[in-house]
Amino acid sequence: QLVESGGGLAQAGASLRLSCAASGRTFSGHYMGWFRQAPGKERGLVARITPSGSTSYADSVKGRFTISRDNAKTTLYLQMNRLQSEDTAVYLCAAGEGSSFSSWGRGTQVTVSS
Question: Tell me: the pLDDT tens digits for 84-109?
Answer without folding.
Answer: 999 999 999 999 987 799 999 999 99
